[in-house]
Amino acid sequence: MFGDDILPKLGDILNELTTFSSEDFLKLVKQTSDIIKNEYNENSSLRRTGNLLFIPSSGEAIIIGDIHGDLESLIHIIKDSDFIKKAQKKQNVFLIFLGDYGDRGPSSPETYYLILKLKKLFPEKVILMRGNHEAPKDLLPIPYELPLQLEKYGSNGKRIFSELVNLFDYFLSIVIIEQRFVLIHGCFPTQALTMEDLAYAHEKHPKQSHLEEMLWNDPKEGCNNSYYSPRGIGRLTGIPVTEKFLKLLSVKVLIRGHECCEKGFKINHNSKILTIFSTNHPPYNNKYGAYLKIDLSKEIENAEDLKKNIIQFT
């Protein structure tokens, strides 16, 4: 996208957040859409099937949970993880977002802009997953504040929102880091039977509930089956569901977002699930936000093994 000698520095990227116009935003959404539609072809080191991406267990992964328009925390993570310098040096590093980039928080447009800018600059290293706040229109949360936040762009606000919603359809529903982790925003879908059900959940929606549950489900302790969620959409799932899919996918741990955590993270289901929440700003009142920085070459057995990789911040 850029020659090595003209890649912008972090300061240049951050300065752009205060100067971009609605036309710049629309252009960036279009450029990102074109990138995502055409990535992971036969020349890529990564393999995509439907909306499932396979990543080899090598290199480093920086994994970010829900941001919800918290631009301050996102900038902190990017600086603290040193992602941009690593990416510019062509190190084997991935910046993986678990979804829920905007809505709720005050800087949602700027947060989306920064994330899409990173995807444009480092397309093979930035992995964009779908959260329930990037769901199809029939699965979006209520209330949904993003359209109101885009009104500051005048008549282009509605167009930006429409283009963003179309872009969300190309975001990944599931990422598998081979022999290590599976990443889903919500949790495993209770009615799915095969890997194809997970990879093509977006195509099976709305006839089947797989996508809804992958975006909206939560793990529940002491639950041997699944129950309707108090969220009003999705389900609460028990340990048997978790163990079934970890075995199916030949991985050890599910890494997810979706739930606010007081410490920025929590562990469920006999240390088989790790939840990461990367904002601690209003409207959320958790003490810490957190993100993960993992050496993918190292074998792990459970989520407890990942505690040393969790980086908390206030």
Please outline the helices and strands:
Elements: H1 10-16, H2 22-38, E1 47-49, E2 52-55, E3 60-64, H3 71-81, H4 83-88, E4 93-97, H5 108-121, E5 126-128, H6 146-149, H7 156-168, E6 174-177, E7 181-183, H8 195-199, H9 201-204, H10 210-216, E8 218-219, E9 226-228, E10 235-237, H11 239-249, E11 253-256, E12 265-268, E13 273-276, E14 289-295, E15 310-313
Could you walk me through the main structural features you see in this protein, from its secondary elements to its overall organization?
The chain is an alpha/beta fold and 314 residues long. It has one domain: 4-Layer Sandwich (Purple Acid Phosphatase, chain A, domain 2), CATH 3.60.21. The protein is 32% helix and 18% strand. The protein has a seven-stranded mixed sheet with strand order 1-2-6-7-11-13-12. A five-stranded mixed sheet has the order 5-4-3-14-15. It has a three-stranded mixed sheet with strand order 8-10-9. A hairpin with a 6-residue loop joins strand 9 and strand 10. It starts with 9 loop residues before the first helix and ends with a strand.
